[in-house]
Amino acid sequence: MIEEFKYTGVWWLPNKPEEQICGTLRFAHGEGAILDLIGSFKDMKIHRSFKSEIILGMSSNGRKITLWKCFETKSNFSWPGFSTSSLYAEFVFVGAHFQKPDETEFKSVSVHYSHLDEWINISGFDIEFAPKEKEVIIKYKLPEPFQADIGDGIRITVNFRATPPPLSLVQTEAFIKQRTEIKIETSKDRRFEDYRRIISHIQDFLTLGISQPVHPLAIEGIPEVNEEMIDDNPYPVQIFYRLPDISKAAKTLLPSDMLFSFKDISNRFQVILKNWFTNVELLEPVFSLYFGTLYNPRMYLEHQFLSLIQAAESFHQRIYGGQYCSDEDYDKIYQILVKAIPQDAKRDLKESLENRLKYGNEFSLRRRLKEILGKYHRILSRFIENKDAFVQRVVDTRNYLTHYDEDLKKRAASGTELYRLTQKLHLLLRTCLLAQVGFSSAEIEGLLARKCEISA
Fold this sequence. Notes:
The chain is of the alpha+beta class. The chain has three domains: 5-98, no CATH class; 104-236 and 244-266, no CATH class; 281-322 and 363-451, no CATH class. It has 14 helices and 16 strands. The protein is globular. It starts with a strand and ends in a 5-residue tail after the last helix.
């Protein structure tokens, strides 16, 4: 989806195919899809923004296009003259017409992610140099795909594509480019929204391993139904939606730059990936908070710190629980404490105290951090030598950044120290996630040591 494009054509609503409007669809990954029309789909007598689940189009070069989840962003009308309007589309399907959202079902979806080629690092090239013979022999064979069944009827296949070199009467170069893709197949056809969640979960997994933000650069789906066919199979549909403003010239990474690569897990790829998907629902808040800091590198350092603290708390709560007593026993204590609040207390104060007491049975941040550090002491002791001092600094900094109490300001980390504290929280969470998907303590220790991200 890093590809930018522009299609000029005619556009219409599924229930009004005879009312076609000329316009131009333009797409940029940081901006999304904008449809500029010479005209408007809405009734000018109705003064409210226009929305449509589906808009269909036919480009000037004969491409069928479906726009999904569309809403008007601006409209103009002049007399004399004509009306114009612009709409934003959340999804673009190029290569098919879907009359309604329920038809956006696919048999499979293939995704090319940024840095996937480097992470897989499997090449079909065999290159021999023979300087004395003034000869270079280049052989290429497409690598064999491999699969992983991850449950719920979902199969992940790592595929390889190659573009052959063009032939010319005057041949001055030969260029072969290999690309790695991940194909997602399901036992039953699913709507693209379901595939998008799977795409996102794989994106997070790759981001953890690569230690850099990963994004889908190209998505292609095989729909359940498409009037255009190739060898009795539906024609592939290109799928586009808005992405962060990522660089087109992404830095090439080496496996040594990564936390772990495919080769580190090649003998148990299916097990690790299946474990990841098994934990997706349980750890969804953790993923959102942790990967949010990676996908938003411009986030203020203070916000990164707070997000990582929340992620660590959420991880401990969801994996280990953390209550001082049973819910039944605490409810009795809670009722007594609430009744002890003076009746003449201001209503806002009373509600504030009740809300705080409601969560009084939950472990404190201090205790949760200590238990995580105790669980992974062997791994983290190299980076966090003084566990008690680290926990105290984290707690004080969290409290200050949450309440901005001047009494805590001197005890809170800032500047370089806050950066180092944040990096150590990254290490802590990476350790938790790696352990949760099946890496042993010795393996995690080796991966972090190889990465050498920070010193103690």
